[in-house]
Amino acid sequence: MKKNVRRAVLAYSGGLDTSIIVPWLKEHYGCEVVCYCSDVGQGDELEGLEARARAIGADDVVVEDLRVPFLRDFAFPALRAGAVYEGKYLLGTSLARPLIASRQVWCAERSGADALAHGCTGKGNDQVRFELAYMALAPRLTVLAPWRDPLWTINSREDALAYAEKKGIPVPVKKSDLYSRDANLWHLSHEGGPLEDPASAAPEELYRLTESPARTPATPEVVTIGFEGGRPVSLNGNALGPVELVTMLNVIAGRHGVGRIDIVESRLVGMKSRGVYETPAGTVLYEALEDLCRLVLPHDLLRTRAELAPRMADLIYNGQWFSPLRRALQSFVDTALQVATGEVSVELHHGRAVAVARTSPQSLYRAGLASFDMTGYDRSHAEGFIRLFGLPLAVAAQRGTEIPAAETAPDAANSPAAPAAPEVQRV
Q1: Is 6 a catalytic residue?
Q2: Catalytic residue status for 156
Q3: Which of 180, 182, 291, 326 is catalytic?
Q4: What is the pTM of this model?
Q5: Which of 17, 182, 274, 305 is catalytic?
Q6: How many domains does the chain have?
Q7: 198: domain range?
Q8: Which of 365, 390, 422 corresponds to the end of one domain?
Q9: Residues 331, 222 share a domain
Q10: What is the pLDDT of residues 164-213, one digit of tens each?
Q11: Cα separations (Å) of 119 from 18, 20, 107, 163, 303?
């Protein structure tokens, strides 16, 4: 059934999908449309966005600069957790969605709206990420998802382009460039178009943040990242805020071709999809922090964090940022990484980022213990440790070599008869 809606707040990016949704909502629901946009580092995409939204019928436009909270409260916590989806994806889009959705809810409450809308397709993960956030924060509001609406007749990006042309809507997409991109400070993603054939390599002209390995500098470059409690706070000895640090590191790592991945991933909604991601700064920060953790965390804590990291990645990828489990795991990680303070030097060269040096006031490394010099170390303790540590192995090796006690007991048939029990007199 068609929902009765008076005013809807649309998560608006200025791209093809959300641009055509503004007039479509007004045409089919007769409602006011408030376009809400979060600046999470899209850069040039935001130029003229408010004017474009009003030109296609938006009744109001709200644009917020959320770059600092995006990194501080979403990307960096995931970094501390070591969250990497299916071993490769650093979750750039997944991390931005709960923040955008939460501020969209705030905008709806401020403007007195009775509905929230998004431009996610019925096949993707983002529909889940947005709507789980809506359910966690404002379950009373109506949700409009045009791509799943029975009134929606657009089935492809080609159809969407045709609709935009029919309505006179200018959009930053051409028939010769049908990639779906999502940009923020943490990454740039590319999907669709030629990438829908996983047997075809991504064309070099696709990339925008990272240089081709063939054109990267011949000489390696070393950058030094400073951390406090697992939070990046400095670059090459200069204290920087989150936005400045990530922006500068994106440029440095990008010119060395660092941060590219090409992955066929498992979407939450059931199918495989192919994505190409560029995450220059995030790749360097991940390499640096993992290296620092190996320096300052004891083995059991390091191992437990590593075991929980894929679980955290799944929660984030699946849109469960506001779930009690994600919050609880984050509390564990943040407590564990209170000692993750120090500096790590990372060498960048031909698309690779490799930690090469590290220091920390919380280091568990002791040169006197680790060196081959035996002075000050009582080697006799090692024998007892080895015997106790290997005791289960020794016991297991002896299985079957000893005669069980039951086999050495006298044969019951040849044993003297036991005295009969006295007869019980019954009354």
Answers
A1: no
A2: no
A3: 180
A4: 0.90
A5: 17
A6: 2
A7: 183-365
A8: 365
A9: yes
A10: 999 899 876 666 567 889 999 999 999 998 999 999 999 999 999 999 98
A11: 5, 9, 17, 15, 40
